[in-house]
Amino acid sequence: MQFALLTDIHGNAQVLQNIAERGIEKIYCTGDLIGIGHQTNEVLQLLSMLPKCRIGILSKLPMIMLNI
Could you read off the pLDDT of 34-45 as tens digits, one per residue? Predict the structure, then answer.
């Protein structure tokens, strides 16, 4: 089984697109996925479309942006 561990991609949608194209079975996201980069909306959209993605830790900036 292939899996990906993501952290600190900071709004870089290309990272998620590459993972989706490779058919990685599980994706674990540990924080700083959005906020600083220019593709925050695209990253959020891709995360919602990836059924095997588990977000384990939200850092301070995404929590503020998502109003959690």
Answer: 777 789 889 888
